[in-house]
Design brief:
With about 200 residues, the chain is mainly α. The chain is built from 11 helices and no strands. The chain has 3 domains: about 80 residues, no CATH class; about 60 residues, no CATH class; about 55 residues.
Length: about 200
Amino acid sequence: MGALYPELEQLSTTDRSVALNPWEFTLASIDELPPGNAFLRLAQLLHLLDPEKILGILVRLRFSNAQTDEISERSSASLLPGLDEDDEAIRRWLSSNSPEQLNALARLELARAKAHPSLKKTPAEVVQSWRRARLIRATGVPLSISDLAIDGNDLIRMGLRPSPAFARILQDLLDFVLTDPTQNEREVLEARVETSSDG
């Protein structure tokens, strides 16, 4: 393995005196995933590596760009917010990790919790965080730029010239409504854009 994937070899040669070293933990967490979901299991195999090392392995394995992006995102995703965090933290987590990836990411984290119960969250706590995130997502709150009440065409209609600044403006609006989803109204967002432009 070391010759083909030296990145993984580093995990297997870690100090074996500890109760559960990184390699053993990785294999144990893979065992907690469905055997038929190869991409999910691969994401688990790579999750302790740095993003650039993950990308290097996937490129050598000749996955498509879409598959590489999906596996990389799953491998590098942050943990679900803890039970003590508020709804805004969950909205921001969903936004940054892609709402469509929620179930896959939760399954990965649950498998790790089962393999190593002394981690930050127990399996039961992971399930509770997962359910809470699903409930928040189901409310239809805006989680991406495409969910905003206005888009680039609206900015043009307001008199702004198309430019790379559009991405920054829309990202600012998304950040605004992630804090308070009730503000995702055309008039409110247009007023915010106008105020920012005047400033």
